[in-house]
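Question: Hello, beginner here. Any chance you could explain the protein record under this note? Any guidance would be welcome.
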Amino acid sequence: MQVRWLQCSYPKNNPEVFKTDNIVPLVKLKTSPAMISIEPNDLLLFARVVEDGSFTRAGERLGLPKSTVSRRLAGLEAQLGERLMLRTTRKLTLTDFGHNVLEHARQVMSEVQAAAELAQHRQAEPSGQLRISIPNDFANVVLGQLLADFTVKYPRIALQVDVSPRRVDLISENFDLAIRMGTLDDDAGIAARRLAVFSSSLYASPLYLRQHGTPHEPGDLMRHAALQLAAPQREARPWLLTREHATWQDTPPCRTTANSPELLLRLAQAGAGITAVADHFVEPYVASGELKPVLPDWCLPPIEAWAVFPGRRLMPARTRAFLDALDAEFSAPRCQAARARAAQSRQERIEAARLEKREA
């Protein structure tokens, strides 16, 4: 890959800078160090000269005359106020200052090359095997159509989807991307992008509430059967409820734990207990009367959906294409409208519950 170098023109009012190739006058700067302006291309040129060990060889590789290479490096030294290298007819020797500047010059070269590779990479048609991990319920309820559309749009990508509820190890198991819900682990080797935030509430069937009574305060939950989403340690998680400035947290008696929110939803429909679920997914069951909100004026913490992927410098084109598809899905008017309807319905239930309490 070739990096194109740009010619630079220097001010004509400072001819001392260009007096000779071998001696660099150290011009006293009239500006403060914070005001020094350095041409990035000259740092790239400096790194290439050091890499090739010769002005001539560097100029030949870059298509520049030796005199231009020498003049531009002399100008860089004058701008910095110190010599970067000692030059003789036989060899180039870096000064201590030159060694320090070289580290920054190489970083600039690395970033330029990475940007060029990224542009070239994005222009190529995505292909190869794409391994992704998605929670089963989320794949079926939310992403089914997206996955179908993606395979049609990118026929050269072989999509491999893992729908197990466990959190896969992206690096050791060679996954390109995973969808995760809730709080993320602190991992320096993983990058993440938030896709959506879902509000959540407690729900139970009318049958269960007729048989066991309707909770009116969070403390009442301690006399009810909870249907809990299994934690990684396979222990029931406490429920955290908030209402304005009030907070309640405890673990109600847990009748059933499962690693499938959809299964817990089915159990709640059947009258097995009270469960916590994202409002976005339960709206159809509330509208049909199969489920009713419990403590509607109390809020559970929102549930965040994340796309996580290895934090490598250059993302494969196939992973980028899928991440772009996720962004498009969750920013689409259809998805935004569904979340807005869920939020509006939740707010209406809160207001209705407050009105009922005032009237009581």
